## 1
Amino acid sequence: MRRYIFSLLLGLTFCCPVLVAQTPAAASTADRLTKLEAQVAQAQSSADNAWMLTSAALVLMMTGPGLALFYGGLVRKKNVLATMMQSFAMMAIISVLWALVNYSLAFGPGTSFIGGLHNAFLRGVGLTPDPDYAATIPLQTFMIYQLMFAIITPALVTGAFAERMKFSGMALFLTLWSIVVYSPMAHMVWGKGGLLNASLGGRFPTLDFAGGTVVHITSGVSALVCALYLGKRVGYPKEAMPPHSVVLSFIGACLLWVGWFGFNAGSALGSSPLATSAFVNTHFGAAAAALSWALAEWIRNGKPSALGAISGSVAGLVAITPAAGFVQPFSAIVIGLIAGAFCYFMVIKVKSWFGYDDSLDAFGVHGAGGTIGAILTGIFASSVINPIFKDPKTGAALPSGAIEGNWHQVGNQLMGVAIAWAISIVGTLILLKLVDMTVGLRVPSDDEVEGLDLTQHGEEGYDFAS
Amino acid sequence: MQKIEAVIQPSKLDAVKDALVEIGIEGMTILEARGHGRQKGHTEFYRGREYTVDLLPKIKLEMVVPDELVEKAVQAILSSARTGKIGDGKIFVSKIDDAIRIRNDERGPSAL
């Protein structure tokens, strides 16, 4: 009997787990749901990261070889390498500087004007997302994407002092410029706690989707200051200095257009419908501006030039940059049409009125285009495309721009524009003076006449005889 | 031996070369040149700045020929290079003191 009871108890011991195992069916569904939610988030993250890494590559391509070719073709043959080298130098110098200190100054926590050194040496910049910036991609993706913007901005400035700047002076000046002008501006518009940050509750929320103020106004206005401070090239304006290769500039401009999809659509920080809006607007802005510049030229000179058409497209791309993720497609066309004509006027008329030698029209295209684009963003921003302003109580979308009745936003845009102009002028003047007194800015005039490729770099761009 | 220098329109190069080969002249030097006589240049526009281009592309042929071929060569060039418009170019003929073949030291008309 005892043996019977014992084996019965033993049998029950083995049965109980089986009986109990019936109820975990409810727990395993919850487990599976949790796993599924994690997988969906992972898939979203993968999609966003793929687009963002691609965008980062596209933006780097805008500098090298896009801008290098665009600028290189516009200068005389004897300066082609020196000009391209200035853009390449930014790719090298700014990258290292970004890792050391500039990322932290731009995007680390700090004041309303500048970040601190919390993220210096990329400390804390790992593979987990920072939800304040981009919740679905690794922070390193965000960091590397922003780096590409930090590279192209000083590279744009080189257009103002092309054909007469010392390589050493340029390298020192733009290194300091990236710390003193770019990082603070980037922080104010895009950084945590930034004064002008529209997404993170800045005091004067400036709508700047991809860098109309941060990149184009700062580089363009700084370029103007440089052109005025350095003075004109030897022989300007009497001596003929036509571009030595509009072919190179053409290739560069087309690379800029394609790369700009990364610049603007990537600023959506994910592969979302907003990225689509930015992509679409970028394209229409470029196309419309190419038409309006070409048309203006056709009317004035009787012929539309290739250089004019590509310059127009760049002007349109500049102007649509702050607006890309905020406006409807047709607004993008209007912005492009205005920008093409306006920048044409700035380059053709205003430059000769004042007589400054902005060699490659960095101010006429980027400074002017960025300014007009930033203001037009305040007019055309639509909450239907991007509900950037929300009612704090109800969460409902508030009007974005003037076309929705929010004329106050135009005032905020002007504030952002004014701060960009101010920091560029003041910062650039101080740094030019500093570098002038130490390393020196201009090459001696004999070297300038001989050409920078030989005198600064000991090279020739083309040696067809060999 | 005489040297014939002919500045012609670039588009006429093939016709002139063929005409010269036909009369037995195969050795010549061809240079890409720029220049103008009474032909006016043209204006180009880059970013709103006007550039007057006076120097127009030309082709210059140089050849040293035996005396008995000089007039035939000149006629061959004239008939193949002429369009009748300003800018057709010019031919110059000058005397040559000596000609030496580098390969084997040969001198004189047989070196041509």
## 2
Amino acid sequence: MSAALARARQVIASPVGRVLLALVLMLVIGVIFNADGAFLRWTTHRDMLRQVSVWGMLACGMTIVIVTGGIDLSVSSVLGAAAVAFSLLTIQEQWSPLVAIVLVIIGGAAVGAVSGVLVGRLKIQSFIVTLAAMVLLRGLAKYMSGGQKISTYIQETGQVVPLPPIFDRIDARVFGDTVPVVVIVFLACVVVTAFVLRKLRLGRYLYATGGNAEAARLSGVPVPRVLVLGYALSGLFAAVAGICQAAQEQQGDPETGMGYELQAIAMVVIGGTDLAGGRGGVALTLVGVLTIGYLQKILSINAVGEASRLMLTGAIIVCAVLLQRRK
Amino acid sequence: MSQATSLLEARGVSKSFGPNQVLRDVSFDVAAGEVHVLAGENGAGKSTLLKILTGDLAADAGTLRGGARVAMVHQELSLIGPLTVAENLFLAREPRTRLGTVDDARQRREARALLAELDLDLDVDEPVEELPLSTQQLVEIAKALATGSTVLLLDEPTSALPEPEALRLFERIDSLRRHGVGIVYVSHRMEEIYQVADRITVLRDGALVGTAPVAELPPAALVEWMIGRPPSHERRPSASPGDVVLRVDHLTVTSPRAAAGARVVVDDLSFAVRAGEIVGLAGLRGSGASDVLHALFGDRAGHTSGAVEVRGRRVELRDPRHALARRFVLLTSDRKQKGLVPYMGSIDNATLATLPRFSPRGVVHRGEEVKAAGGVFRQLNLRAPSLAAPVRLLSGGNQQKVVLARCLLSDPDVLLLDEPTRGVDIGAKEEIYELLGQLARKGLAILLITSELPELLRLSDRILVLHRGRLTAELERAAATQQRVLEAALGASA
């Protein structure tokens, strides 16, 4: 009995345990404030997952960049630009959706790679590089769209064209209408990120770069190249998120996703990944994504007003981080 | 000590961390005006005892007497770089004007008075980061004394200091002693201990071995106290050197930091190292010895000229990655800043430079990696609670073994070693010496820098002495003595 207790305490004291504790607390709160049983229905959880998926994709890339000791503020604008580009290509230009998806994803990765070059080769601080990229790409999104939302209504002609089926396909549910496709996409991003960080040489190099860039360089780690790849992956995930966002909104809104970069950072941090770099992982981020997702859901099913919701979210981010801080 | 007043006295102190007892019934005292050296291998309990003396840790048993204020002068300085000397001295207790703002004039005046008392001639308006390390340490000591401390704990104060600066520190310690300050001094360096100590206390495995006046404890006895057996004094058996492995012709290196009028740090240096040979590079700070190693490793690209050949083939000094591919390996002097990735485990740290070998298609084969690293760890006798645990949790000696393991896994032809035993306890040092001997016998060409002369003399087949980037002496092992090395290092041509 005492052995089991000691074991339980050990689990709770481990980094993963502390992070899970925040999530479990959140679930307990949800069960208590269940809004007449709403929290106990699968649809509530399904909606929550659908709502966090886009943020979660950004958080995957953010985890990779934060592991290298950097930050990527540009993900929200990459998302916006990708949503616009994808809508332009598929709705207005009537391109094949597959080609459009591939092109947008390559574009996202390329944009990330440029940030990576500035950070890795030209040694500019990532905060500054990606802040500039965030502003620039938001501008690009507006430039591409002419400031308009790209939807099935074509302004020049006043016509309404049909919505390409790919939009509904991404925004659908599978497995007997239970699991949203975007959730599957999100989980795929988590799996890819975990594979990169844990199994690939690149992953090891990402941790080494974030943990001690000088030691890594002197050990022959191609640090600039590693950073380029890290930011490229972040851009890639942001482009995927942008396509999903466009599908969910059924249009390419150049204003979409503003402020999402901060959500993504909050999720990574609640997961316990160290902003100083060299530590953390995507499993932790997944827990952080769920924690924030449930928080938002619990507040919304209990009809908490937006003002209180924002204040509570801020307070709970701090509490969650305090909770998982090592003694 | 009955003849002098004891400033601080610990009696029967014990301390455990969980199941680990790190101190067992240890007694220790410091008298006014004495330097009491605390010696022992890494893990002997020195740091824990220091923390108990400062009150940072509470002892499980035992008493602490004597109300002296104790200040610790850390290995890593606690000064704030961009602030001036005066601002650092009065940090968080600045003199105020009536309006509540900092009384800058008074602060500078008092700072000057304080430094004058310690015979320190410093500009109080200079940012401390611009001062040499030894001077920063003196500022830190001044700060401790200014807050009324009468006992100073110096934990390896010279570990980051070049020889001349260390000598300056010893002078100051002498003057502090005359002022009646009690000093507890932790050091791994033999000569240094005998330079400063009045009394020596040795800890081993958390227990007190003994306390003795320095005159009654000759070096051999001290080492025996520390490691529990008589030390071996033999020199490394002389190898029969083979063919020339490394040939360096007209190597010139300029400082990457000097923007205007590039300063030459290595000036037209030519030498060769044969297979199986350990060549020592000696020199004081600013001699350029460390720059030679970094340049050969391609870490001074764009600031290097000259020709380097390995087994007759020309090698470009492009970057560390290129050097590693040409089987050059550098062990850096500063394992924290330039060696280890602190949160990675021992295995991941050891394989960092050879990871492509364990991941031919980009996916790491963990099993092969663990096997290869494990083999080298056994060879090095690495003691780690877990090979996956962050390497920062290991003792200095074991951390150094992890860095050495990384070098060995690279299977080098040329091994460049910059202070391979810094911050390593005596037991681990012996193991490292033994290892270097084995590597030389295997036919590696080894270039060695160490600031400890006995170590240099013991290991080197040949010693090249540099003074301000120029070769001032080349001594065969039979001709090498501490005095001749030092003379050449100080610039007296041999």
